[in-house]
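User: Could you check the structure of this?
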Amino acid sequence: MNRGNMLSSRALAVYLKRGGLIAYSTESCYSLGCDPCNRN
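Assistant: Sure, the predicted structure tokens are below.
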């Protein structure tokens, strides 16, 4: 992983911890991701 990807991963982790919802692609479909422990 290069430094640019690491910064993006950190920003994404903060976003998820604040209650954000993301969509990401897998090999066969798109998926949604969230922090299941966050009640926001």
